[in-house]
Amino acid sequence: PFFWAVIPAAGIGSRMRADRPKQYLPLGGRTILEHTLDCFLGHPQLKGLAVSVAQDDPYWPRLPCADDGRILRAAGGRERADSVFNALQLLAARGADAADWVLVHDAARPNLARVDLDRLLAELADDPLGGLLAVPARDTLKRADADGRVRETVDRSTIWQAYTPQMFRLGALRQALDDALRTGVAITDESSAMEWAGYAPRLIEGRADNLKITRPEDLLWLQQAWVRKR
Ligand code: C5P
Question: What CATH number corresponds to the domain at position 144?
Fold first, then answer.
């Protein structure tokens, strides 16, 4: 089956403490965002792709891919959920159907492996709802109080880290995000909007190196891994 892709890229990435949003930092001679887009643009099942970009973003128009006819530019929003919702609206206006698959992937995850993308598509192809790439918790987990003292050890056998892409039917995801945004409930990924709507998305185990660049050391690690790969 074919799919649509949505890349929310309208965050400022304050935890990176960099001079620009993290998706525009360099990795192997290009920007992180260009690598992220490449994970999708070469895929034979891709029907179309929307990137959510902040209105006053000076970096996006300078990228060569800004002129790529396959890429639609959606408006960035206040929160990530707003940015994704705007992109879904744009895809729907361009003919995407409510039953179509849409894969939402963080702009700051440039190391998505093709095997992971293909596994997600294959495992969920016949699923009525959809799901997400995720990684089982590796470390022992502690719940702490406000003073930073351990109150308990959490059973890690049922804990997963939510990664992206997250793959859902466009209509159901749009409805869930719309409801969540109206209600003001905290939404940090697409799955949490779907959970809040009463659904149980499926977890598909992915590679741990599909990490989201959040802090400066993440980018250093990835730059070194990139050099080794090439
Ligand atoms: O800040 P965080 O790493 O959780 O952001 C995840 C993704 O959501 C990033 O790709 C970021 O650019 C995007 N985002 C967005 N619009 C916002 C906030 C974040 O598109 N208002």
Answer: 3.90.550.10
Q: What's CA 24's distance to the chain center, in Å?
A: 16
Closest CA to 226 of 78, 69, 93, 31: 31
Alpha-carbon dihedral 90, 94, 95, 98, rounded to 10 degrees:
-10
Chain length of the chain:
230
pLDDT value for 171: 98
Number of domains into which the chain is organized: 1
Say whether pLDDT at 213 is over 90: yes
Mutate to test the pocket of ligand 1, among 15, 40, 106, 181 (most ligand atoms within 8 A of CB): 106
- Supply the DSSP string of 72-114, one letter for each residue: EEEEP-SSHHHHHHHHHHHHHHTT--TTSEEEE--TT-TT--H
Does residue 230 carry a pLDDT above 70? no
Structural domain boundaries enclosing 189 = 3-229
- Token code pair at residue 63: 């990228």
Which residue, chain included where needed, has tokens 């997600």? 120
> What ipTM, to 2 d.p.?
0.96
In this prediction, residues 192-220 reach a mean pLDDT of 96
Q: Please work out whether the CB of residue 192 comes within 6 Å of at least one atom of ligand 1.
A: no
